[in-house]
């Protein structure tokens, strides 16, 4: 036992010494990026999948748990692959050219996005829509900072909020098929299920009755 513990300590010291080597920093950063992508993807997707599955999906407990596990794994895997690809391409570019070039960040992310998130499935589409909304806000702020558009005299957020909610409810009411399934489920719960009840039980306690009254 003592020999095994000593060997483990030697191995840990060697690993820590390796991690301190600056010449390996780029490669190690790619590996840690893969690790962080996997962990972050799992942390983000697991609670979301848990809530959405138990709120809106039917099926047995086993089927629901399997769905949660599959969604969590897919999100974690894709984010890990993307970070690994992006950081790997940037490291290769920096090594070849000797410096970081802003356009290369865009190009590396485009390649990673195409390879990892190019498959049109529910997980990827949610991630892309999440990013798209933040990109639009970021580009708007950047345009003001650079002077491409004048600084608004009043906060434009109330107008943006009004237009976003007006548009999404119009789409839900008249072009529902254009919205993502999870958003359709959420809006059905909020705006259609609230139109139906039979007694106090499914008016305040439950959303829908499960008996045959």
From TrEMBL:
Source species: Picathartes gymnocephalus
Pfam families: Tim17
Signal peptide: none
Cellular component terms per the entry's GO annotation: peroxisomal membrane
Name recorded for this polypeptide: PXMP4 protein
Superkingdom per UniProt: Eukaryota
InterPro entries according to UniProt: Pmp4
């Amino acid at each position: 036992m003592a020999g095994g513990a000593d060997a483990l300590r030697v191995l840990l010291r060697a690993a820590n010494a390796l991690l301190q080597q600056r010449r390996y920093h780029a490669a190690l950063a790619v590996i840690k990026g893969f690790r962080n992508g996997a962990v972050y993807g799992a942390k983000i997707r697991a609670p979301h999948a848990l809530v959405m599955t138990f709120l809106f999906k039917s099926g047995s407990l086993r089927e629901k748990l399997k769905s949660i596990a599959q969604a969590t794994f897919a999100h974690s895997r894709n984010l890990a692959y993307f970070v690994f690809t992006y950081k790997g391409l940037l490291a290769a570019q920096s090594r070849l050219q000797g410096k970081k070039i802003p356009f290369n960040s865009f190009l590396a992310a485009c390649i990673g996005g195409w390879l990892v998130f190019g498959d049109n499935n529910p997980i990827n589409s949610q991630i892309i829509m999440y990013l798209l909304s933040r990109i639009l806000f970021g580009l708007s702020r950047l345009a003001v900072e650079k002077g491409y558009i004048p600084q608004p005299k009043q906060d434009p957020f109330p107008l943006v909020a009004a237009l976003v909610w007006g548009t999404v409810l119009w789409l839900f009411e008249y072009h529902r098929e254009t919205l993502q399934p999870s958003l359709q489920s959420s809006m059905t719960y909020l705006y259609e299920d609230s139109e139906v009840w039979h007694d106090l039980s499914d008016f305040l306690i439950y959303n829908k009755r499960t008996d045959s009254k």
